[in-house]
Amino acid sequence: MARDRRAAEQAGRDGETRAAWYLRLRGWRILDRRVRTAAGEVDLVAKRGALIAFVEVKTRRSAAELDFAIDAHRLARVAAAAEYLMPRYATRGEDIRVDVLLLAPGVRPRHIENAWIG
After folding, report:
1. b/e map 52-75, b = 16+ CB within 10 Å
2. pTM higher than 0.85, yes or no?
3. For residue 12, what pLDDT is reported?
4. Angle at 57 between CA 54 and CA 59, to 5 degrees
5. What pLDDT does residue 80 have?
6. pLDDT at position 114, please?
7. In Å, how far are 29, 85, 96, 117 from 33, measured between CA atoms?
8. Cα–Cα distance between 8 and 43 in angstroms, integer?
9. What does DSSP assign to residue 62?
């Protein structure tokens, strides 16, 4: 059981690293990774121009599993954490949003922009 948990944790970290590279290649600057708050955790905080994105990264073993990787409850936790973190990162009046980046072997990453509308 502990081995499965460690493997899942490592897969998540690897996915976050791949997601960070994906975003960098598209002009984003990664400001922070794995930011924990009382409200929840944000996997990546990224900036491009006057936009700050709080990014939830989900890695799955197959493309078919990606459709079920994120739900409203999880998005609400990320949004709550983003609201908590906004004063730290959006210091110059930048727009903010919550994005989701879905990763699976053999398929292009799926970047869902502005995934939380709350």
Report:
1. bbbbbbbbbeeeeebeebbeeeeb
2. yes
3. 78
4. 175
5. 95
6. 94
7. 11, 12, 16, 23
8. 15
9. S
Sequential DSSP letters for the chain? -HHHHHHHHHHHHHHHHHHHHHHHHTT-EEEEEEEE-SS-EEEEEEEETTEEEEEEEEE-SSHHHHTTS--HHHHHHHHHHHHHHHHHH-TT--EEEEEEEEE-TTS--EEETT----
Among all chains, which residue has been given the structure tokens 């794995």? 34
Cβ distance 55 to 110 under 8 Å? no
Position of tokens 């079920």? 68
pLDDT along the chain (118 residues), means of 10: 78 90 98 95 97 96 87 91 95 94 94 86
